[in-house]
From TrEMBL:
This is Uncharacterized protein.
Length: 133
């Protein structure tokens, strides 16, 4: 399976991306945006924000749909304290339905993720991750 082709197919189906801003940007504006948004630190920040949103939505849905009592949300606190833990937890949440929220809580802190080494024929821009057990 070529993940890059799959991602491309999905991105194409989304259609055109809405404009970032409603005002025209001059060259100085574009330079500042490139400096900020092109920075590795911003990419780490952005991924952490995505992970936080996944966790927030998952737990909210689990509580609202009655699969997790609200008081049990506090049991996830230990899993939310670090960027690495949030990355692992959000991945597990993406792979689980909200019906499994109580099981996810019972299993405790998910194993830390580690970067796998891609094979020689893997596209260079894909990073494969797995859970360390």
């Amino acid at each position: 399976m070529r993940l890059d082709k799959l991602v491309e197919q999905i991105d194409t189906a989304f259609g055109e991306t809405p404009p970032f801003t409603s005002v025209d940007l001059d060259e100085n504006d574009r330079d500042v945006l490139m400096r900020v948004f092109g920075d590795d630190g911003y990419q780490v920040y952005l991924q952490d924000q995505v992970n936080r949103q996944i966790i927030r939505d998952y737990l909210t849905n689990a509580v609202m749909l009655g699969y997790l009592p609200q008081q049990d949300v506090s049991g996830f606190v230990e899993m939310l304290g670090s960027r690495e833990a949030r990355a692992s937890l959000s991945l597990h949440m993406l792979m689980s339905s909200v019906e499994q929220a109580a099981e996810l809580l019972a299993s405790g802190v998910p194993a830390r993720l580690k970067l796998l080494e891609p094979s020689a024929d893997s596209p260079p821009h894909i990073h494969i991750i797995s859970s360390q057990s």
